[in-house]
């Protein structure tokens, strides 16, 4: 009872004291997690500390208070500002006793650990030994008896910082997306030279126990062969690899790419090195070159997604320490991601499941490994096998035509999507068609059959090889559209595009009443737009690339203002939807975002002006407002710029910047590449199910990413969800984040950390 009472006291304490540490290998995104955790905790009333250099800081009492300003300007920085280390002393009970002493000395009993499975195991050990170590310290006379009463337990939250994406309990670990980006930058550059010289490249990427980086980059670059620890190749793989590379050459590929995980092994558990792979290929007459990417994969500015997940996880960790019951605080949690939302799982269950994979690999129980890694890993592995040139199986034709077209603005990810659409479709026995220039092209019969090699190399390409436009079916072209569909014997249409495309498929569906022929055709929409303004999905392919482009530009803009008091008003795309503005604000640390959903009033502008005046009076050097292009019909970007410039003169300077089409261009990001393939994989799963259940294709609606999975929404539900007037979904999951973003970015007038 006494313990319960003490725990209750701990739960209800407002001025909690909590610390954050980063441990093990660093990863890009640790800083945004530190920033959001510290600020959210301060806003809730906590006193926040940083433990420097991992567990060494606990052992040596290198524990320093953080304030609002000490985590300013770090959201775009790789690595960790508080340092990380591997501590031998902490592995000993004596070391952990010192850690307990130092925590109690600083009156800290909530600890956020950002690190890998080793670091999280260490945190749990400290938690379980807490009471006994306290007792020893009391017995040693180092602490007085009442500490037992005041610090009944240590609460632990864990965030996985690891480039390997190797932890159960989260879709993604902090740092994995940035590492994949670094790998893709390197491979995309290598591919252009490899194509010129018809060379074979062997690329070694990190991942001692986990092949995620090799797998994700293999899917994203359309590699010929990957070697990962989870699935060692069958004996004799060397010859199979060489034969397949040769087959690819003969069918028209000008370069070959083999990606080797640093932990790759054969079925006997013997390491497979990249040098061995290259030598083998050279012996077989290939002009083979090797590139070992090494530590470039760890570093650099965090991507949008790493900043996003780290920020959300950091906030959730602070909320966990504040909003949980005593019982919950006594159970350490792992804060992970499921889709775009955070989830909490029992920490040690996740750690143990993860560690069991290393044991399975050691015991060579390879059949179980990929399963334990989880659904997404397994799915990507299957997609890689199906889409790579190597493992093409002979499939009986279904005699059914499936057609893809784009509609709306071009979006990065369209080409990788068509590649996956084509190859996975062929793998299922469909006849594949691509339609050029959207519904307009469909009416004109601009169709081409897509063969396996038509889409060779498309996985890395930006833009839209099939073209896209904004026309939709109407009374003057519907009969031509139907004629084309009949001529090519199309059984299913997949529209991969934006809001206009969704209007287009809804219109086509409506025409079924008049034209019975349309009733035997499945009509499906899939999200391919940077704006993320379409129904039936939380995210659309293209928005990740666009946000990365925006953050690259914002980082440069912010740097240009170093040492000058300057406020930037930056306009981003998004049409009627504020997703790009809201997300770029959250991940760039902008103080304000203006979006159409919330509108802009003179009152808002006046308040914000006052806020910036106050801030710049306090020596603040830079301010950032992100405005969505259609946030207001009256208060344009230029108006806001002029207003702030006039009112802020003598105190700060104002600059206006319209980012424009750089947001739509460039090579698709890792996430847009691999998620478009995943979306296509599910498209065929839905078609197969439809065929099995009804004997013909009759699905109509859209598919999209919801709650970490891929879901189908029927056409009536899809139409219901769309607001024609505002050209966006009626309800948008991210709206609450606008306020959250501002809360953790604006220096409060009464500094909560003081
Ligand atoms: P990475 O994935 O980068 O290797 P990690 O967190 O798994 O990250 P480790 O070297 O395993 O890295 O652990 C980091 C630190 O955590 C160790 O130096 C040690 O201080 C502590 N630690 C790890 N495992 C334990 C353990 N079983 N008991 C106590 N402390 C541990």
List how many beta strands DSSP finds.
25
Report the portion of residues in β strands: 15-25%
The outline comes out as: globular
Average pLDDT works out at 92
Biggest β-sheet, characterized? 8 strands, mixed
Structural class: alpha/beta
Bound molecules: adenosine-5'-triphosphate
**Helical segment count:** 26
**Low-confidence regions:** none
Q: Over the alpha carbons, how many angstroms does the gyration radius reach?
A: 27 Å
Residue share in helices?
40-55%
Distance between the termini: 36 Å
Q: Mind explaining what this structure looks like?
A:
By secondary structure, the protein is of the alpha/beta class. It has 26 helices and 25 strands. Strands 12, 13, 14, 15, 16, 17, 22 and 23 form an eight-stranded mixed sheet that branches. It has a seven-stranded mixed sheet with strand order 3-2-1-4-5-10-11, sandwiched between helices. Helix 2 (30-44) links the parallel strand 1 and strand 2. The longest helix has 25 residues, at 670-694. The chain is globular and about 90 Å long. The structure holds adenosine-5'-triphosphate. Residues 23-25, 55, 86-87, 90-91, 115-119, 121-122, 125, 162 line the site of adenosine-5'-triphosphate. Keywords: Allosteric enzyme, ATP-binding, Cytoplasm, Glycolysis, Kinase, Magnesium, Metal-binding, Nucleotide-binding, Transferase. It holds the Pfam family PFK. InterPro entries: 6-Pfructokinase_euk, ATP_PFK, Phosphofructokinase_CS, Phosphofructokinase_dom, PKF_sf.
